[in-house]
Structures are given as structure tokens and as C-alpha cells.
Specification:
Belongs to the glycosyl hydrolase 13 family. By secondary structure, the protein is an alpha+beta fold. Among the domains are: 130 residues, Immunoglobulins (Immunoglobulin-like); 109 residues, Golgi alpha-mannosidase II (Immunoglobulin-like), CATH 2.60.40. The chain has 15 helices and 31 strands. The strands form seven sheets. It has an eight-stranded parallel β-barrel. A hairpin with a 7-residue loop joins strand 5 and strand 6. Helix 7 packs parallel to helix 8. The radius of gyration is 27 Å and the shape is elongated. It starts with 8 loop residues before the first strand and ends with a strand.
């Protein structure tokens, strides 16, 4: 196709022409830049151009009437120094809150399709509240070479996911990286991830957000130690297409796109997939009290779910709800995911409060949501991992019933809760714990959900860390500034006898054993395991179960703990390796041993499972084939009781003995070395509050 780039009009000193209406946002074309934006209710639109970080625009160019087709404005401005400009739009139209029309020509609006955003280029730097254009769109040159970055070949069922906050992973001085808290700093820790054995990193939000949101609302908050409280987690998106500049060592030079792409490329070189936590349920614009940033000033009625009088429905708990099944918003979300997949080679997405994606434009749940169907069957996203947090803040809970079309996986909230209940000794969870370990088929029918619908997790960013789960009975969120009213009240946790930090050796020993119990169950369960960063070396948040605002040592990983708890790290490393060695955990083996089912339930005695309310001892046998075709037997015995129990193990073919591989009773020797593994023919002691794992390969 040959492009005609000759100007047809002039505005002051600028040569312009009618643009390309199907190129959303800003696009470099021969000789200039195409600026395209949709707005249904606009009566006029202006392009506002700034020099980099200049307080005032150097040009405001109105779109001529014939530069509009339908509800789309498109204009090419020629001979622009596009590497050194920032741009936005001013849109005029009706203003009537009761109808949801709130156009305001005085506001300079961020391009919703901007591939780079400036204005928050350095993390935590206080913004200038008098700046008339807080969040500035940038024109992006796509010249970073990713052709040699091949798609990762790890099968979906082989995933071992590591959830982490990009900044917090290396921000602590103990990380000893050159650029702490950045994409570049994360690269330096890839050898650590490789050694641990994970093969997928799930980043908390890296879309552009504003950690200084309270400053814009005239509030600067501090904790009792003088730490400024920020929007640390980032679940408050400003722009869906732009990586966070404040996470880049080179962000102040507008190089964040390159730095993030380089991180992805290096992770892929080490066979580690990249999954992004994406927030398509709300934006940072909030409700009627919130700022104009982008969507409010472009088409408030299209982008947000509104009530009959123009009020914002709040199914997200964050002030507004994105109108995901409006065709305009639906197309933007699809284009966004295509952008990250094609331009950045992202491998998958975890959708925050994903049930909102299935709500209709009036807020009601849909049985066949167009957006979810569109994402599932889009050809560009065909090999992409799609993970739903299958609930929202409006009370919709869809774990097991999320519209999955045979492709979506889900964060399994039942897994988290049932494992926690059983481990702490709560009664009535014997049947639940075996259901969770054996693939949650009571929730996910393998015939229509496949084998990998369940993302198994015990901890995640939201809630206690694994160490805190066994160190605190109650949340301790006082430093968040809400009088300890924020965060979940029921954590299904147990402090092992003392609340919080202690020097009591018996309690510390018990806590370490409980961490090993949880880890063993997680990595010996059918489904996809997800590990919270730092759990492998007993990271603590000091009882804070909602550290969303804690950009300090509460949230940062303290790498000194890796040395202090190196034996725990080794235990996690060995567990991950053990899981990889046995395809039966992943339902990846073909066939089972003769006369033995793939899954069987047991108790104190083999083949006699006790599902009664008072039972605290469960045993599970999994069978399958090794990679070289031999019969593989694994026996998982869990005692949540505070007393030892004598158990009898099932007999194996040819009177083959079991080998005891793991006994969490032992502190630094829980994963038993091959030469020290005892052979068990029938009976063995199952220690109090412990997990044992036996194996036989025939």
C-alpha cells in the first residue's frame, strides 16, 4: 500500500491532513504522526501538543469537521519532532451528570491508547499539583528487536507460577542489585529464580498507575515510622497500554518500554514465562469525586457502568466499574492484550476481579459474556495463558462457574481456604482437603474444564505471607492508617501459640514445620501451583494482610532472610524438582499401574478413607507413569492432629517397599537424601502436625 503523505491543510505553522481512522492512538506514518481518538458525544476535539515536560502547550490544533468519520477523529500532523513531544486531547460536549455526559473542554485528556505515559517518570517523586497535564501521552517508536525471542514451550500443565511485585522483589538494600526496584534490577535475580525451579513469573500490575494518588487528592499519608504511604500494589490503572515508568531505572529518560522488553527477553532466555496481572475492572478516575484523566472526558457513558442517574456502579470496590461489555471497551481490551502479546511477547494474563468482565452494561451477570468469548477465541491470543480471579467486590463469586470456554484457569479460592482450615486443625475438612489435592474435580469437571483449571495457592499478595499465616491469629494493619479496619478479618490462620514475633524455640520449630506442611501439599497437588515470592525463605509482613500502601520493608523482600532460612529455600527447591520429576502431579502421564486407580483415598488403614467430621488424618495415593514408562506410586499422608498416629500403607506389586521421601517433622532434613530414605513395607509413624510423602517406582 502506498501512503499519500502530502499535506492538504495548514493550521498556523503546522501542515496537517485527514488521518487514518483505524489506527487507534498515535502512530508514526511517513513524514508525520497520526493522532486518532474515539468519542461518541464530542461536539469538537483538539490535539494539544507539549514539549517534553513543558508546563504549557506549544500548540493546540482543532480537528476540522471533515477529519471526523462517525465518532472517530483522525489527523496527521507532519514534520513533528515526535521523540520530544507529549500530547493529549481536549474534548467538548454535553455536560449533564444525570445522563452520564460530563464533557469538559478545560481538561487535557490522556490518550487511552498511549503506548507510553510520562508525568510519573520517577517512582514516588511528588507531583506538581498545579501542572495542567498530569499524565502525558508519548509517541512510541517500536524499534526494539524481539524477533529472536521465541515463544516459551512450557506446557500449561507444567507451570509453576511465582507471584511477585516487581519493585518489592529487589528494592531492599539486601538484594544488592545495581538498580533496585526496577525492571533492570529484576534481571539480576533471574539466576535465583532459575535455581529455585519456577518457570513462570506473575507480576503484580505493571500498567502505568499513580502511586501518588493521595497527593492529587490533597492528602499525604505517613505511617508511624515516617514512611510515606503510596499506592504500592498498583491496582489503580492510568493507562492499559503503557508499562510503568517508575519501575524503570531509565524511566526518567522515557526508556521504560525498552527496559521492560529487555527483562522479558532475559526471562525467556531462561525458560521463564511472563504473566501480567491486568486490571480491567476499574480505573484511577474513581467516582464523581475522582479526577479526569482519560475515560471520563472521552466517553463516560461508554467506559463506565452507570446507574439511572449517572452515578457510578462500584463492583470493584474502587469507585467505578469499567463497562467491559460495551463494544468500544471490549475492543479496547482485546487490542490491549494483543498489544502486549505481539509487541512484548507476554505469555499470559491474570485478570483481577475477573467476574466484572462478565457483567452486562447494567451490571447484571451474563451467561455468555461477549468479552470473555472474544478473548478466548481470538487467534492472536490462541496460545496465551488466561487466568481469572473469579470474583468481584460486588458479591459475585464464580470459582468453578466462571465462563471458561474450556480454556480459562482460575485462582482456586476454595483450595486456599480448605488447605488452611485442615492444616490448622479445624474439624470437618477431611473430604475438602482430599478434593483440593486431587484436582478439585468437585469444582472443575475435567470433561469440560480440562486438567488445569485450578490455580492452586495458599498465599498471594493479598493476605498473610506463608510465615505470617502461622505467626498471627489476627491482622495487624494499623500502619495502613485505617485503624486496622482494612483487610480481611478471617484469615484462617494460627499463630502456633504466640501472636507475632517470638524467640521461643518450640514455637519457631512448629511454625517452620507448618510452612513445610503447606509447601508440601501445594507442590504435591494436582493443578497448577502458585507460590508467593519470599514464602520460600519465610518472608514476613509483620502481620499486615493488606500491605497495598506499604512501600517499605513491610513489603520489600529482605534477602538477608534467604541466608537465615537457606534450608527452607532448599526444601522448596527440592519440592519443585520432585514435582517436575513426576508427571502424575500434572496428569501428564499416560496410563496407570495395573489394578491401581489414578487417585485413591486412604486413612489410618489403606483403602479406608474416613470422611467423618472429626477426622484429622488423610492419605492419598496418586499413580501414573514416569517419563520412561515405569509405574509410579506416590502416597501423601497428612496429620493435622497434635498427636502421632500409626498408619498402614497400601501394598505394592511384587512386595515392593515404599521409600520415605519427605517428612516435614524434620527441620533441616525434611527432604530426605536418596541414600538415607528408609524403606517402608507396611507401617510407619505419622508425626503430629506433619506431612509425609512416600514414593515407589517399579
Amino acid at each position: 500500500m502506498q501512503l499519500d503523505i502530502l499535506p492538504t491543510d495548514t493550521f498556523k505553522q503546522f501542515k496537517i491532513r485527514r488521518g487514518f481512522f483505524r489506527l487507534n492512538g498515535s502512530s508514526i506514518v511517513p513524514g508525520g504522526v497520526n493522532f486518532c481518538i474515539y468519542s461518541a458525544g464530542a461536539t469538537s476535539c483538539e490535539l494539544v501538543l507539549f514539549k517534553d515536560r513543558a508546563p504549557k502547550p506549544f500548540a493546540i490544533i482543532p480537528y476540522p469537521e471533515n477529519y471526523r468519520v462517525g465518532n472517530v477523529f483522525a489527523m496527521i500532523v507532519l514534520d513533528l519532532d515526535y521523540e520530544n513531544i507529549e500530547y493529549g486531547f481536549r474534548i467538548d460536549g454535553k455536560y449533564d451528570k444525570t445522563t452520564g455526559d460530563i464533557y469538559d473542554r478545560r481538561k487535557i485528556i490522556l490518550d487511552p491508547y498511549a503506548k507510553m505515559v510520562s508525568g510519573r517518570n520517577e517512582w514516588g517523586k511528588l507531583p506538581d499539583k498545579d501542572n495542567i497535564f498530569q499524565y502525558r501521552s508519548k509517541v512510541v517508536i517500536s524499534d526494539f528487536e524481539l524477533d529472536s525471542d521465541l515463544p516459551q514451550k512450557t506446557d500449561h500443565g507444567d507451570l509453576i507460577i511465582y507471584e511477585t511485585h516487581l519493585r518489592g522483589f529487589t528494592r531492599h538494600e539486601a538484594s544488592k542489585v545495581k538498580h533496585p526496584g526496577t525492571y533492570a534490577g529484576f534481571i539480576e535475580k533471574i539466576p535465583y529464580l532459575k535455581e529455585l525451579g519456577i518457570n513462570a513469573v506473575e507480576f503484580l500490575p505493571i500498567f502505568e498507575f499513580d502511586e501518588n494518588e493521595d497527593v492529587i487528592n490533597d492528602t499525604i499519608r505517613y505511617d508511624s515510622k515516617g514512611n510515606r504511604l503510596l499506592n504500592y500494589w498498583g491496582y489503580n490503572p492510568i493507562s492499559f497500554f503503557a508499562p510503568k515508568a517508575g519501575y524503570a531505572a531509565s524511566g526518567k529518560y522515557s526508556m521504560q518500554n525498552y527496559e521492560f522488553k529487555n527483562l522479558i527477553k532475559e526471562l525467556h532466555k531462561n525458560n521463564i514465562k511472563v504473566i501480567l496481572d491486568v486490571v480491567f475492572n476499574h480505573t484511577a478516575e474513581g467516582d464523581e469525586r475522582g479526577p479526569y484523566i482519560s475515560f471520563k472526558g472521552i466517553d463516560n457513558k461508554a467506559y463506565y457502568i452507570l446507574g439511572p442517574n449517572g452515578e457510578y456502579y462500584n463492583f470493584s470496590g474502587c469507585g467505578n466499574t469499567l463497562n467491559c461489555n460495551n463494544p468500544i471497551v471490549r475492543q479496547m481490551i482485546l487490542n490491549c492484550l494483543r498489544h502486549w502479546t505481539a509487541e512484548y511477547h507476554i505469555d499470559g494474563f491474570r485478570f483481577d476481579l475477573a467476574s466484572i468482565l462478565g457483567r452486562n452494561q447494567d451490571g447484571s451477570p451474563m451467561s455468555n459474556p461477549p468479552l470473555l468469548e472474544l478473548l478466548t477465541f481470538d487467534p492472536l491470543l490462541n496460545n496465551t495463558i488466561l487466568i481469572a480471579e473469579a470474583w468481584d467486590a460486588g458479591g459475585l463469586y464464580q470459582v468453578g462457574t466462571f465462563p471458561a470456554y474450556g480454556k480459562w484457569s482460575e485462582w482456586n479460592g476454595h483450595y486456599r481456604d480448605d488447605v488452611r482450615h485442615f492444616l490448622k486443625g479445624d474439624l470437618g475438612f477431611a473430604q475438602a482437603i482430599v478434593n483440593r489435592i486431587t484436582g478439585s474435580e468437585d469444582i472443575y469437571n475435567p470433561s469440560n474444564r480440562g486438567n488445569y483449571a485450578s490455580i492452586n495457592f495458599i498465599t498471594c499478595h493479598d493476605g498473610f505471607t506463608l510465615w505470617d499465616l502461622f505467626s498471627y491469629n489476627e491482622k495487624h494493619n494499623e500502619e495502613n492508617g485505617w485503624n486496622n479496619t482494612d483487610g480481611a478479618n478471617d484469615n484462617i490462620s494460627w499463630n502456633c501459640g504466640v501472636e507475632g514475633e517470638t524467640t521461643d524455640p518450640e514455637i519457631l520449630t512448629l511454625r517452620r514445620k507448618m510452612v513445610r506442611n503447606a509447601a508440601t501439599i501445594l507442590f504435591c497437588s494436582i493443578g497448577i501451583p502458585m507460590l508467593l515470592a519470599g514464602d520460600e525463605f519465610c518472608n514476613s509482613q509483620f502481620g499486615n494482610n493488606n500491605a497495598y500502601c506499604q512501600d517499605n520493608e513491610t513489603s520489600w523482600l529482605n534477602w538477608n532472610q534467604l541466608q537465615e532460612n537457606h534450608d527452607m529455600f532448599l526444601f522448596f527447591k527440592q519440592l519443585i524438582a520432585f514435582r517436575k520429576e513426576h508427571p502424575l502431579f500434572r496428569r501428564a502421564s499416560e496410563g496407570t499401574p495395573k489394578n491401581y486407580p489414578a487417585v485413591s483415598l486412604h486413612g489410618i488403614n489403606p483403602w479406608q478413607f474416613d470422611s467423618s467430621h472429626g477426622n484429622r488424618v488423610v492419605c492419598i495415593m496418586l499413580t501414573g507413569k514416569t517419563e520412561d514408562g515405569r509405574d509410579d506410586f506416590i502416597y501423601i499422608a497428612i496429620n493435622a492432629h497434635w498427636e502421632n498416629h500409626r498408619i498402614n500403607l497400601p501394598s505394592l506389586p511384587h512386595d515392593t517397599p515404599w521409600q520415605l521421601i519427605i517428612n516435614t517433622e524434620f527441620d533441616d532434613k525434611a527432604f530426605i537424601k536418596p541414600q538415607n530414605r528408609p524403606k517402608i513395607y507396611q507401617q510407619n509413624t505419622l508425626n503430629a502436625r506433619s506431612v509425609s510423602v512416600y514414593n515407589a517406582i517399579i
